[in-house]
């Protein structure tokens, strides 16, 4: 039995034993089961976050306060879902829980004008920093575990990606203009 099949089995067993709140938490924690993907679940979670990025962009266009409130609400949702995911999935949570990736993508696109170029560049920037895990993201993840470390680490990765995105947009606008 391969690792992907084992992880899927852990998820299905946890879901079968869970009440409706825990099932909802598992759904959010795995970002609507994207975390169960056998190939590149973090990349798929980042791509699956794009509709939320567009929603947040529309909120930012109305008022920055609405965008910030949305982001803070999502942080609370990520902590709640990650906590339940960790408890229900045990060691498998490290690989299955992907809501923190979505949080990082939301932060990466904070207060950035949304265009096709910025979406592509921002997604690439986030995936790059997610792979590299620059300081202090890795230290937070290792030191604080799945819930606190992953959520705080995702916030840091999102900030790094936001910086890379802004630099990339600046470089592209200078090259084009």
Count, helices: 10
Taking all residues together, what is the mean pLDDT? 89
Decide which structural class fits the backbone.
Answer: mainly alpha
**Count of DSSP E strands?**
0
- N-to-C SSE string, H for helix and E for strand: HHHHHHHHHH
Q: Hey, roughly how much beta strand do the residues contain?
A: under 5%
- Global shape: globular
How does this structure look, described?
The protein is mainly alpha-helical and about 180 residues long. It has one domain (about 5-170). Helix content is about 80%, strand content about 0%. It has helices at about 5-15, 20-30, 40-50, 50-60, 65-90, 95, 100-110, 115-130, 135-145, 150-175. Helix 5 (about 65-90) packs antiparallel against helix 7 and helix 7 (about 100-110) crosses helix 8. The chain starts with a helix and ends with a helix.
List keywords for this structure.
single chain, 177 residues, mainly alpha, globular
In terms of topology, how is this protein built?
Blueprint: H1 3-17, H2 20-29, H3 41-48, H4 50-62, H5 64-89, H6 93-96, H7 99-108, H8 116-132, H9 137-144, H10 148-176
């Amino acid at each position: 039995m391969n690792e992907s099949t084992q992880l899927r089995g852990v998820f299905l067993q946890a879901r079968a034993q869970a009440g409706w709140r825990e099932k909802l938490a598992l759904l959010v924690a795995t970002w609507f089961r994207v975390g169960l993907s056998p190939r590149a679940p973090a990349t798929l979670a980042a791509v699956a976050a794009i509709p939320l990025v567009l929603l947040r962009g529309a909120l930012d266009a109305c008022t920055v306060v609405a965008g910030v409130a949305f982001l803070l609400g999502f942080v609370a949702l990520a902590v709640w879902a990650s906590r339940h995911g960790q408890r229900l999935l045990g060691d498998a949570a490290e690989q299955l829980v992907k809501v923190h990736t979505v949080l990082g993508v939301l932060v990466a696109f904070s207060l950035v004008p949304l265009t096709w170029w910025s979406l592509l560049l921002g997604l690439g920037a986030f995936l790059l920093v997610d792979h590299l895990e620059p300081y202090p993201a890795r230290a937070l993840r290792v030191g604080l575990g799945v819930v606190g470390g992953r959520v705080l680490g995702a916030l840091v990765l999102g900030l790094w990606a936001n910086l890379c995105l802004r630099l990339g947009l600046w470089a592209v606008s200078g090259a084009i203009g």
